[in-house]
Design a protein that fits this description.
Layout: H1 2-18, E1 21-22, E2 25-26, H2 37-54, H3 58-64, H4 69-77, H5 96-107, H6 111-130, H7 133-144, E3 150-153, E4 169-173, E5 176-187, E6 194-200, E7 209-215, E8 221-223, E9 237-248, E10 252-253, H8 259-295, E11 297-298, E12 301-302, H9 307-335, H10 341-366, H11 378-386, H12 395-407
Parallel strand pairs: 3-6
Antiparallel strand pairs: 1-2, 4-5, 5-9, 6-7, 7-10, 8-9, 11-12
Helix pairs in contact: 1-8, 2-5, 5-8, 5-9, 6-7, 6-8, 8-9, 8-10, 8-11, 9-10, 10-11, 10-12
The protein binds flavin-adenine dinucleotide.
């Protein structure tokens, strides 16, 4: 069955390279529409990388649960390890919109790997933005080159959506903090080198939280078993455990009590990035569906001749473009430092991750039974983006943020 294994997996990428001028007409879902020439260049570099370096391996990385360290280091050589980190510490210094365009493009090649890269980029940005000069120069260069990898540690077994209730304690002892507690669901956990950890240095609530940077190998830092997951299999997820783990005070980002605010500022960009990963998966899935409808015949003619399926495809394309506009609008607001940026990021994450999941799922449905086979890429996009509706704040939490803004409650 070599024909099935080769063509549907790579299909999205062969199609991506020729979809822009489908039958001589610009495609209505072209992700380069409205971008500057410079942004089109970043996008082309990222799409080429996704096509050549990621797409051919995405099924194997998923199946064998491979964390593709060397591929990510290659991506970092193109500037994708610290996309919105400042250049003096090795970053690319690009905007949030540029970042979104890049993650969307990379995600067409492997959504799970790109999503991890987005978390890594968020951590590097947090250190760049809230660290002092010494911390920036110590940590950022090796993160931007992806010689080292980072994890973001907020969630705990007893504190998920109510993140400000976290209990991991960091007690001050001279020039150190002594950490006790545990984090759950940490992306990259155990395989990564740098841990950006939110922990309690003060009283209850968000104001008692600080942000510390820990390095792998610190005595008292250990990891749980690797979780078995529905998707996101090219990146490990583990608990991170602290048992009398001693961390120098000089590893604290910002002031004591600033940790929750740092964590949330990281997540504003994180939400745009994860939504961008959903856009890439949805885009690839629309192309796969488009191709399948054209090739597959039932009732004596191509499925593409069926008006019900045509209408569903048109809806998928429309929802994809609407989601992309939301994400890019939020990225611009964040870049401009607008007051409404955080809520726009939440709205974009809510809308894009819900819509893109529905698009990928509909694309799977259009493949019929073949869509349910692992020989076909569409099922992996469905599995990989399901979790985007859950993490970096669930989509219920996104609704809470939007409602609070509207009702001022
Ligand atoms: C694969 C994976 C990777 C992850 N990576 C990371 C990571 O790298 N770092 C990290 O810190 N965390 C990570 N997470 C954790 C993730 O952010 C949390 O799972 C998420 O925030 C939800 O928390 P919870 O699982 O405890 O669910 P809960 O908070 O227990 O929520 C359960 C359900 O109840 C809903 N709910 C809760 N409260 C309300 C409310 N007030 N109103 C309405 N509905 C509500 C939720 O939306 C959800 O649907 C990851 C999770 C997964 C699955």
């Amino acid at each position: 069955m070599a024909w099935r294994a080769a063509s549907p997996r790579l299909g999205a990428h062969l199609l991506l390279s020729r979809h822009r001028h489908h039958r001589g007409i610009a495609s209505c879902i072209d992700p380069s529409a409205g971008l500057t020439e410079e942004q089109k260049e970043f996008q082309k570099v990222a799409l080429d990388f996704a096509t050549k370096e990621m797409a051919p391996h995405m099924a194997e990385w998923d199946e064998k649960e491979i964390f593709p360290v060397e591929t990510m280091r290659k991506a970092a050589k193109l500037g994708f390890g610290g996309i919105y980190v400042r250049p003096d510490v090795g970053g690319s210094g690009l905007s949030r919109l540029d970042t979104s365009v890049i993650f969307e493009a990379l995600s067409t090649g492997c959504t799970s790997t790109t999503a991890y890269m987005s978390i890594h980029n968020m951590c590097a940005w947090m250190i760049d933005s809230f660290g002092n000069e010494e911390q920036r120069h110590k940590f950022c260069p090796s993160l931007c080159s992806m010689e080292k990898f980072a994890s973001y540690c907020l969630t705990e077994p007893g504190s998920g959506s109510d993140a400000a209730s976290l209990l991991t304690s960091a007690k001050r002892k001279g020039d150190t903090y002594v950490l006790n507690g545990s984090k759950a669901f940490i992306s990259g956990g155990g395989d990564t080198d740098v841990y950006v950890v939110m922990c309690r240095t003060g009283g209850p609530g968000p104001k008692g939280i600080s942000c510390l940077v820990l390095e792998k190998g610190t005595p008292g830092l250990s990891f749980g078993k690797k979780e078995k997951k529905v998707g996101w299999n090219s990146q490990p997820t583990r608990a991170v455990i602290f048992e009398d783990c001693v961390v120098p005070v000089e590893n604290r980002l910002g002031a004591e009590g600033q940790g929750f605010s740092i964590a949330m500022k990281g997540l504003n960009g994180g939400r745009i990035n994860i939504a961008s990963c959903s856009l890439g998966a949805a885009h690839a899935s629309v192309l796969l569906a488009q191709e399948h409808l054209t090739v597959r015949k039932q009732f004596g003619e191509p499925l593409a001749n069926n008006q019900y399926l045509q209408f569903r495809l048109a809806e998928m394309a429309t929802r994809l473009v609407a989601a992309r506009l939301m994400v890019r609008n939020a990225a611009r607001a964040l870049q401009e430092g607008r007051e409404d940026a955080a809520v726009l990021c939440s709205m974009a994450k809510l809308f894009a991750t819900d819509e893109c999941f529905a698009i990928c799922n509909q694309a799977l449905q259009m493949h019929g039974g073949y869509g349910y086979l692992k020989d076909y890429a569409v099922q992996q996009f469905v599995r990989d983006i399901r979790v985007h509706q859950i993490l970096e704040g669930t989509n219920e939490v996104m609704r809470m943020i939007v409602a609070r803004n509207l009702l001022q409650v």
